[in-house]
Design brief:
This protein is of the alpha+beta class. The chain is built from 3 helices and 6 strands. The chain has helices spanning 7-14, 16-33, 57-73, and strands at residues 2-3, 39-44, 47-51, 75-78, 81-84, 88-89. The strands form 2 sheets. A 4-stranded antiparallel sheet has the order 2-3-1-6, with helices on one face. It has a two-stranded antiparallel sheet with strand order 4-5. The two termini are 20 Å apart.
């Protein structure tokens, strides 16, 4: 699960169009960074899911760190200031079956 922290501030301060642009920019970055076998989807609001098939927990951490680094570099102009997209990621192993 990928969750953009404090995302509501973007909508409140810069408006919903800026929020939509930020979500689109984040999604495009995740899709660029994902492997062909990964599944990336918006779960709701500012939450996303990234399924990493056949990936152990260490491999997942590497991929998630790459996404966090990419999110930290994302910046867009909303009004008169640059907006940063903070986020956090946690790794969980799904049960098979």
């Amino acid at each position: 699960m990928l969750d953009l922290d404090h995302f509501k501030i973007i909508n409140d301060v810069q408006g919903h169009q800026a929020g939509d642009d930020a979500l689109r920019q984040f999604s495009q970055m995740c899709l660029r960074e994902a492997r062909a076998t990964d599944i990336f989807a918006r779960f709701g609001g500012e939450e996303f899911v990234l399924v990493l098939p056949d990936t152990d927990i260490d491999g997942a951490r590497i991929i998630l760190q790459r996404l966090l680094d990419g999110a930290a570099r994302l910046s867009m102009w909303g009004g008169t200031r640059s907006l940063q997209l903070p986020g956090q990621c946690r790794c969980r192993r799904a049960a098979r079956g």
